[in-house]
User: Fold this.
Amino acid sequence: MANEGIMHLSTRPGGRPYCGSRRAHMSTTEDKAKDWPRICMKCEIESLMSDEQDYYDNMPESFQNGEKGERAQSAIDALQEAYDSCETAFDALGTAVES
Assistant:
């Protein structure tokens, strides 16, 4: 047979490949999230946060107590919140897979 050894995937409506059960797909998604996205997103956010913290730490005290310092501190806080949100999202995905 010409097609022997070739695995055919069924498709969902709209032509998207069917990956098995919803839980299996969720588990695959969690596995992917454990690797590249989590590492990249967290590292990128950490890098931005570190840069902003260095900027704040190296500005004169009069600037730290002024508008520039306030904006820098606001950015640091927002980046910390983004970092924490990444952790929460990945933890929630793991919980969904275990359910």
Q: What stands out?
A: The domain at 41-98 is CATH 1.20.58 (Methane Monooxygenase Hydroxylase; Chain G, domain 1). Confidence is low (pLDDT under 50) at residues 1-11.
